[in-house]
TrEMBL record:
GO cellular component, as recorded: plasma membrane
Taxonomic lineage of the native organism: Bacteria, Bacillati, Actinomycetota, Actinomycetes, Kitasatosporales
Protein species of origin: Streptomyces niveus
Keyword Transmembrane found: yes
Keyword tags: Membrane, Transmembrane, Transmembrane helix
Tree of life domain: Bacteria
Xref: Pfam families: GtrA_DPMS_TM
Keyword Cell membrane applies: no
Alphabetized PANTHER family for the sequence: PROPHAGE BACTOPRENOL-LINKED GLUCOSE TRANSLOCASE HOMOLOG
Membrane topology category: Multi-pass membrane protein
Record-given protein name: GtrA/DPMS transmembrane domain-containing protein
GtrA/DPMS transmembrane domain span: 24-144
Family: Belongs to the GtrA family.
Biological process, per Gene Ontology: polysaccharide biosynthetic process
Amino acid sequence: MTPAPSQRQTLRERLTLLAREIAKFGAVGGVGLLVNLAVFNLVRHTTDLQVVRASILATVVAIACNYVGFRHFAYRDRDKSRRTKELTLFLLFSAVGLVIENGVLYTATYGFGWDGPLQSNVFKFLGIGVATLFRFWSYRTWVFRRLQPEPEPASVGDGRREPQPGRVI
């Protein structure tokens, strides 16, 4: 049994919206990836910080850049009425992503001894990839929530709208 044309169209519209969201998330994430890797390598090669500490610093800088990009580009059409809660959730889920990302690097560096410059970058990149999947899900589900459309008022048989409590017609 094939879905009705309206169901197919709705599915197509939802997939199109999801594809756009993924593209915008990817654009912001791509900039964040470049910032993350640039800061990581700069700190790693110009200071005596250990690999994972340099990575954590780079991740924090990228998180700050990403928030600006997500709020003002990728999710600019989302609810803006609860910024404090939004920022709190963003930082909470970003911290979980930071642990995931740097957990991969930590395991490679201290668990397997893979701490050369190329190896560090490969495992940093791999950790970012795994953390990105978590971040995409958590940001779209909990942080940058869609505005809920106002329900249409019920109509009375003669075409007039039925009054709703607390609402002036």
